[in-house]
Amino acid sequence: MSEHQELDVPSGDNIALMCSSVQKALFEEEDRVKKLQQKVATLEKRNKQLRDRVKKVKRSLRQARKNSRHMELVNRKLSEKLSSAAGQIPYINSLKQENSHGTYLKV
Question: How distant, in Å, are the alpha carbons of 7, 29, 41, 100 from that of 26?
């Protein structure tokens, strides 16, 4: 039985070797976790930058659409004024021609 007990009990060297292996694996895992946390922080920062950029682009697009609608309205009003004025021009010209003879004095 004494031989059997010696096989079941790990030696001091084996325990130290197992502890150092476990400790090494633990340090490696902690290092991996730290790197992953840094990567996550970097990605979150980049994600925030991109979200802010999207907000700015959307805001610019809304403003451009608003400006476009405003310019269409201004253009339509100017077109209406122009066509209205164009309709009056022959009338104004005919008035000037009729009255132009009366403006000269006969001597």
Answer: 28, 5, 22, 106
